[in-house]
């Protein structure tokens, strides 16, 4: 398989593949345990961005366009069956842009985009000046919560984490949405009930990005609700990914 993707629990006969895009500073391993919480008819594959974990020797993407181009150029083998994209935080933007970048012949394979804890593309903004520099990044990540923030307390891990965060937040700061045709697959937006960085009102902005049905889900928790309400999220995903016909 391509260096870009990790399938921790292969399910060759699965009827649908869920492709997951990590948040800024995150990696494919964030989705390692998802397969056992989803139906056997769903195979979970996670994107591994360069510059982290087993791709630490690969140069980080210089901008969002490059990252999207590189993922879209490698993803075709994963579209041998119906797929859904799940992106959390920055990953929702990446997933959306990859969906837009799919060649026309591959787009019918995409059955749903699930945008988690991220403002709609037109509303994405650079970080404020108070978050510039390493101390600012650390302060911002600490404010988001999640297990990643707690790791930054370990001095030996902090510099490695900062290397990844600098690159990812550069992608966020330089991203500008270019208007175009909406997607034709359904979109589900998800917001944590106590997430100040992506409120329910923010998530509602995704409705304009599809000509297909749209729905908004709110799950108890903050920006990283997916770590504290994992089983509830899996139940919502199972509902949104159904009906998945049995593989033959």
Automatic annotation (TrEMBL):
Q: Which InterPro entries match?
A: AB_hydrolase_fold, TEII, Thioesterase
Keyword Hydrolase on entry: yes
Output the Gene Ontology terms for molecular function: hydrolase activity
- Answer yes or no on keyword Hydrolase: yes
Q: Name one Pfam family in it.
A: Thioesterase
Family per similarity comment = Belongs to the thioesterase family.
Q: What is the protein name given in its UniProt record?
A: Oleoyl-ACP hydrolase
Which organism encodes this protein?
Streptomyces xanthochromogenes
The primary gene name is rifR
């Amino acid at each position: 398989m391509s260096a870009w993707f990790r399938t921790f629990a292969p399910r060759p006969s699965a009827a649908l593949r869920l492709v997951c895009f990590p948040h800024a500073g995150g990696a494919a391993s964030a989705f390692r345990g998802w397969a056992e919480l989803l139906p056997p008819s769903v195979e979970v594959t996670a994107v591994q961005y360069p510059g982290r974990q087993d791709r630490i020797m690969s140069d980080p993407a210089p901008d969002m366009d490059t990252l999207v181009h590189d993922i879209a150029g490698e993803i075709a083998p994963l579209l041998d069956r119906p797929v859904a994209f799940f992106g959390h935080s920055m990953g929702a933007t990446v997933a959306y842009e990859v969906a837009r970048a799919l060649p026309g012949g591959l787009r019918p394979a995409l059955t749903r985009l699930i945008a988690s804890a991220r403002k709609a593309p037109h509303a994405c903004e650079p970080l404020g000046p108070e978050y510039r520099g390493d101390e600012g990044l650390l302060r911002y990540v600490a404010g988001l919560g999640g297990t990643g923030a707690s790791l930054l307390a370990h001095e030996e891990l902090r510099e490695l984490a900062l290397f990844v965060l600098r690159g990812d937040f550069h992608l966020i700061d330089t991203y500008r949405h270019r208007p175009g045709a909406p997607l034709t697959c359904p979109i589900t937006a998800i917001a944590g009930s106590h997430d100040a960085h992506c409120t329910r009102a923010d998530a509602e902005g995704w409705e304009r990005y599809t000509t297909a049905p749209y729905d908004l889900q709110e799950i108890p928790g903050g920006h990283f609700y997916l770590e504290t309400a994992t089983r509830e999220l899996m139940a919502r995903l199972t509902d949104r990914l159904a009906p998945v016909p049995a593989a033959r």
